[in-house]
Amino acid sequence: MEFEALVQTRKSVRGFKKRPVSRATVEEIIEVAKRAPSSMNTQPWHVHVLTGAPLEEVRRRNMDEMIAGAKAKRDIVSHGEYQGVHRGRQVDIAKKLFGAMGIARDDKPMRQDWVLRGFRQFDAPVSLVLTYDRILDPGAVCHFDLGALCYGIVLAAWDRGLGSVINGQGIMRSDIVREVANIPEDQVIMTCVAMGYPDDSFAANAVRSDREANSDFVSYVGFAD
Questions:
Q1: Which of 3, 70, 155, 169 shows the smallest number of beta carbons within 10 Å?
Q2: Is residue 22 pLDDT above 90, yes or no?
Q3: What CA–CA distances, in Å, run from 98 to 15, 65, 115, 186?
């Protein structure tokens, strides 16, 4: 698929078929994605791929902890709640998703269920936990590199018929993920990518987020036109 078409059609998938994803397919995706740009070719990334019983344990324990009111315990520093224009964009996509799923504003049980779906990584059959070498902290360069790898994974997966959602909720309890996936302490858990074959009957999968006009965030300097 041409790159432009790939980017335009790709969307976050929040409902997956109960169909396994083979290790060979994941390896092929990572083989492509690892060509992502990396500062000074440092390649600070590690990918821990979970499926089956280990993934079920992570999502169960992550969800149970959050239901019980445990505080999030992520390795990376959180910005806290969004405010201003960023909060507005967050609310806009939530309205679209709840509208597609028929979840009313005052339907607290269904809204809570939606949140829990995130904590269990939307029941995807595979989760790719992305980490980087702790020795590179503090600094944003390795975060940038990991973001490039992450998007490469998402695009390579989509080109092979697999949908995904970059899912911070899935690693809200990074201590649990680290224990189950046997991730060494010298790696920082940044995020995860829930992946599987899209369920086209799941209404939220048709939702696409809005993007601001270029004129709102792009400035051109030195162009004659």
A1: 3
A2: yes
A3: 14, 24, 11, 39
pTM summary value: 0.90
Whether residue 97 contacts residue 110, with contact meaning beta carbons closer than 8 Å, is answered with no
Tokens read off for 17 = 């078929």
Banded pLDDT at 20 (limits 50, 70, 90): very high
Q: What fold characterizes domain 13-78+121-202?
A: NADH Oxidase (3.40.109)
User: 65, 123 in Cβ contact below 8 A?
Assistant: no
At residue 107, φ and ψ (nearest 5 deg) are -90, 80
Burial class, 149, CB count within 10 angstroms (exposed 0-12 / middle 13-18 / buried 19+): buried
Average pLDDT score over residue span 164-173 = 89
Mean pLDDT, rounded, for 121-129: 95
What region does 161 belong to: left with phi over 0, alpha with psi -120 to 50, or beta? left
Task: Extract the tokens encoding 40.
Answer: 């000074």
List, in sequence order, the alpha helices (H) in the chain: 3-9, 23-33, 52-67, 84-101, 108-119, 141-158, 174-181, 214-217
Cis, bond preceding 138 (omega within 30 deg of 0):
yes
Matching residue, tokens 């500062």: 39
Which of 167, 172, 164 is closest to 61 using CA atoms?
172
Query: Torsions phi, psi of 222, nearest 5?
Result: 90, 0
Tokens representing residue 72 in the block: 């999030």
CA gyration radius for the chain?
18
